[in-house]
Amino acid sequence: MSNGGKLYTAVLAAAGAILTYQLFIPPIVGLADQGDFVRTIGRFGYGPQHHGSLEYVYVEPKYIPDPSYRSPYWEQANSEYLFVGAALLLNKLVSKDGALDITVAGFVHALAFLAAFARLLWVMRHDRAHALVWIGALVALTDAGYAVYWNSFYAEPASCIFFLLLLAEAVEIARAGQTSLAGILRWSLWSVLWILAKPQNAPIGLILGLFTFRLAMWTGSKQARVVAAAGSCAMFACAAFNVTTMPNYGRQANTYGMVFSGILAESKNPEADLRALGLDPQLAKYSGTGAWSSGTYFPEMAASGVLRGVNTFTVLRFYLLRPARMWRRLHGLLPKITFLRWGGYGNFEPSAGLPPGAQSRAFTLWSGFHEHVLPSVNKWIVFALAGWPLLAAWRWVRGRDIVRRRRLELLTLLPVCCLAALFSAVYGDAFDVIKHMYLFNLLLDTCMLYAASAGWRCVGNPIQPQGANFLSRWHAVPPRLERKP
Predict the structure, then answer these.
(1) Which end of the chain is more exposed for a tag (fewer CB within 10 A), N or C?
(2) Over residues 156-162, mean pLDDT
(3) Phi then psi for 63, rounded to 5 degrees?
(4) For residue 461, what pLDDT is reported?
(5) Do 119 and 165 touch, CB atoms closer than 8 A?
(6) DSSP 3-state assignment of 63?
(7) H/E element holding 448?
(8) Is the dihedral of CA 427, 431, 434, 436 positive or negative?
């Protein structure tokens, strides 16, 4: 076995060992429910053994058949159902009493993650900096900040797994400089499943849908072009589905939070802002409250139907017409946008004997980096993400090689999606913002690992051919494409 093969095996084995230690060896780590699990496991007729009494502070170890737990008005179909369904099928083989142990869900999530991780490592094997990327990805993705989600029924695992599969497909396409019918099919499938993971992924769905039309031009196969067009339409449809099928009560709760915890809490003239939103200025006295906080007026507003005239698009229009307020909102959240963990959610079962809300301190090097190092440069991170597409566009205009141009386009998709995830969390939610930064941080980590690998390649080969640039040299150009006129 070559050195590369040995490292590949070692990284995968290390990832499996770290996840096994965290997820399956007592005291196991997971993530306490904050009311979202009913959207997933409730659909399958299961509920928490302790009837929700452990929410926020402890991980519920077992879920039992309980049709009464289901709340259809909170449910929204998503791709996490695939993993929950698989866990229930596996549970029929391993459970003696019919109860679903949370570690069964963790096993299904971890197995799917390791398969996606193995695929990503494999397609990166030709990169000169692959060792750096492999080890960096190992440290980041097995960190407790990401791993705790595997023992849970949140939708973040689906978001992570399908993103990694799509990223691997993007690397394959970038390396070849073209795609095929099979590649378009995989790209479309992983994109659709990624978009369907969470409603917050809807903006990314629009971006991917537009780009897939462009991807259709990278193949000479008419069949592949037809599939790409169908895939694009499916992505647009999934984005629309995410928005239109959001539970009405949850949609109104989110809107209330964005208005009263977001806009009004930062406002110098709450009455004027309420008038601009089409709401009664006298509601300014509820400024700073959330849908579920003490002193809230949300139940009364939801019952009266007042909030039906205000939605996410209303809030977005408010910010777009007031750029200064948009910046104020972002600036206020900047210190915490890179946090992977929030102190309110416990990571352990009650049997661990730890205080309520206790969090794991094992394998937290990467989340510590996110919490203690990145906040000092978060503003510059946002500026860099915004400037990256501009630099890539400049390189694209100056470039003449079609393969490098295509790689630039694929590469630019990464920071654009990263910014979309950031803005979706900042301007589309005022409750549990740190948890909803999960996808932004996952994409940001990908950007940072790419930047590190590009820097490594530049240091390892400081004398570049004329016109070469780290943004346009993702992989070595295959000889057969290099000879094309």
Answers:
(1) C
(2) 97
(3) -120, 130
(4) 61
(5) yes
(6) strand
(7) helix 438-460
(8) negative
